[in-house]
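Batch manifest, entry 17 of 40.
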Amino acid sequence: MGSATPAENVGVVKRYPSRRAFLGGASAAGAAALGLTAGQGALAGAARAAQPGIAGGTASLAAPLAGAAVAPRGYFPADVTRIPATTSLPDLFTFFGRAASPRPDGKVRSAADWPARAAELSDLMQYYLFGYKHPTPPDGSVFRPVPIPATTIVTFGAVFSFSTFSVNLPAGSYTIDFSSFVITPVMSFVATQAYTAPAGFQDWAAGDTWNTPAHASLLQVIAAHTQMVIDVTDPGAAGHSTATITLDDFQVPTRGTDTDIPGPYPSVLVVGGLSAEQVTTLKANGYGYIAMNTASVYSDGANNPHTGAYNELYPYQAGVYEFDSGALMGWAWGISRIVDAIANDARGSNQFNLSPNETAVTGVSRNGKAAALAAAFDARIAIAAPSDPGGGGLTGYRNLTESQLFTYNVPAGADQVYSLNEFVNRAVGNPSESAWFSSKAQDFVPDKAAHAPFDLHAVAALVAPRPFILWTGEAQQSWLGSPSSVLSMRAGKAAYDLLGAGGNIGWVVRDAQHANQDRDLPDLIAIMDKTFGRRQTLTRRFFASLAGTNNAAKDGSGVIYPEQAFNSINAMSRNPYDIENWYLQWALPGQHTLWSADTFVTAGLPRVLTFHTDARQVALTLPDGRRLTSAAPRGVATFRLSPAQAQTGRYIAQTWGFGKQPNRIELAGFSLSDALRHGLNLTSGVPSGMAVGFSHPLANYGSADNPPQMFINGSPLSASVVDDGNHGGYIERFGASLKLPGAPDGPWDGSVSFTLSVKNLKLQALPGFTLAVDLTLKKATVPNFFGQPVNGFTSAFGETPSWNSADLQNTPISGNFHGRWPMFPNVVGDTGARPVSVPNQTAFTAAISVSDASPAGLTLRFSQPLNPGELGIGLDATSSWTTQWAADNASVRIAYASPVEHHRDVTVIVFRAADAAGNMIGGPVRLVVKGRR
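Output type: structure tokens
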């Protein structure tokens, strides 16, 4: 801590590494389309934010975007089903209510129109999701130091496991503050039975106490010190007129001790906290550090008591708009009060030497959600930098990746199939997370997400044009739904482009810890240095204070990234995801629209691709460089690819026309092997169930009249596309999940074996084919995400994909990493190199042939007996059939539900099979039965 002056002595640090947070955690239609009268469509005190601007690469400080109306706007329907549903992201540039627009057509046509639309988006999100943000008087927040007695805590890293997200101590021996993750020992605890800790942690014997020497070594004493709080006063508040926010840490650099850089100092505002090495690095580079205790602002968790400073001033009342704010908005409000306090101190004695106009906000998980909201709803915050914000932060309502198989190399031990994702409705419907949102958010649960008149790309858009960097987890945190967060950032970038600041927003997908990682901090410092005029270039530097042996990050998050200069924040972006472009059926004003329902081409199979556009023509560049063109009559350009034109690699479609800027999108071309590659996630949502998934979407997902079907031992299973707790199975975007109630009766001890069948699968990559797959599962006790034994499912083939990829790293050209993934190793000793292609390796040798083909069916014959519980087939001649295995398991009869024409060719694909020894087929087998001519 600094010691030059009494003021700088305030805020002695709590040195526990609180960065290690637990898990986080419609197209605009206008009043007429909603059936509202012109009078109902009038604005209800709409906020009009000041015009954002760019000056030297930094954002001007517009007025806060907190909603100005004490009640929702008159044209916001209370009944959300009156809002037209859309499964694509609502258009950022079309007003929800036409009367809110400066233009008669209800469109944003230029940057001058954006403040009105931003204000509408702000009010929409406050009314329907986050709750109202009270406009507390800015002059009412002041810093106040208070004395804190000496405190004993448990050394965090010595007892906490990142692999299981658990504290490895006997129950009852500690308490934990979930707002700051401080672990406090219960000194009166005496172990009554032995406690066996995981490897690397301490066992306890019966009779052990915290005074036992081995356990006493885990304790550390935080000396008596001064802690900073903020007193917040609002004379007009409905509750108390004054409340207090606690700061877990408050550090200002001391020139000559911490840094050579003179003040006043910009500051990093943290929802939660950062590690000691990160704080040291910030101070050495001339940045202050202020960590907000969330519980002191707004309580968290299930059965939320709605306590904390926000609720003391504005007592919670469910269903009353201005008093129905959720915890996320409450925490964002708390960050705004820190900004107030800095400004008030600077206007007064400036005893803390902080710059009021130079702040960045960050946090991880649920705290990352709040950090994103803090910047979105307070334009005084100069830089947004959330980490792993997940559902309700930037992971939105609509982009669901559940059951998707990864199509690129992932770290060893990571999930191969996306698990239960934390999208908005899942967070809203979770009793332990629902209080993050207003009670109004429940109106979209469980099956009305498509009625939301915004998605969370609006959060990114509200930060424009200020710098915004997102860090989000990849395969090891698949539950974060990071592709949805990346989609939100990419879609939100359109607002940045409108304001001439497209370079100010970027996103970084990386793996390792669910935390504000040590290796992320140099990116933030680079952005702050450039934004606040410290440096002329945007340069990520290497800081020895963050690195250990072999340049490994001290927090264990991987290797510190090398120094690098970037021409913009957007150039920092890297992600391996193909974002389905049909989510963006709109474009920047003055740019052609371009989207396609097709995102995945299968090499060697003929394919019709359609592109929707308002341009006159679309050009399609094939992976081999050949260029095709098509006119777009009635807004649709069509390309009929021959088998030779259907190739592996990247397809690039671009508009061609006059009067508007061009637009372009990418499609992926994969082999048939990768098109049918699939896998299991046996801990997907455990203790809720498991999933089988593919690498590309189901074409009939959400179909009302022709949906996929699920069966247990041949009996139909009640299935839904909505996880409402009432069904045994769920059809997901990329596959299907079996929930625990869908399993047959019997114990969970591995003795119950059964067949899960998923039928009538229509895969986007194989138009014209219908597929079905049988899987053999067992009911068993398995470890869940936290490493705890729970009821679940097992398979002889585990969670690995059905076979190795034939064409890994066929990744977006726009991913900014040139096809190599990961760009940087996640652990020391990993070179970061990944193979472009992996050969199939399997002991499966059975030959497969077809016989007895007729209009009624065909027989698949195998050169050796196969396991009848593992079979996946696809047919292009019929969508329904039954299977009957021979007694020797060397053949299976496929009987069509209705006869096919005798003259047509029938293609059958076997994409899952296993021999009697348990070897899995090494790739799909494609057979063609010629019809009679």
